[in-house]
Fold this sequence. Notes:
Layout: H1 4-17, H2 20-36, H3 48-63, H4 67-77, H5 86-93, E1 95-97, H6 106-118, E2 129-135, E3 139-147, E4 154-161
Parallel strand pairs: 1-4
Antiparallel strand pairs: 2-3, 3-4
Amino acid sequence: MASSHDLKEVLKDTLESRGVLGEIKARIRAEVFTALNDQSERKPSMNSENVLIYELIREFLDFNKCKYTNSVLISEAGLPQVPLDREFLRNELNVVEDAPSKSVPLLYSLVANYKESKNGNRFSASKPSHVTEVLGNSHQYSATLQYGSENDEPVAVIVKGGKL
């Protein structure tokens, strides 16, 4: 007959291989944080940039199924349980989407924009740049950056979703 230590090891290995143990640990961390976080503690007021950043991160975490991380973010940042409307975020960030790209978090298009500008690729106002990114295994989207004639700042990011 197997010892209790052996049974514990087999159970632990089984839970790890199924991914359940990591999920349980994340859930416990989230619950401990929530319990320790003083709900009466007044959160500092946030400026509009922080609100946009938190909402982009929230959408990203939700898309990637990081629900416990997301719950800690909501609690720690003092965010409301209901996220801001995606259309509001799009308008605030000047992001233009087509129908398929609505399944991809807005953060992906912003990262594509940053990567393109970081590579030193500056484009004339009359000629928008086009970026295609592959995310992981076959996750793909395209982004077109449009620049205004008066400066180098992008006036819109047009995202066209691919297969997800």
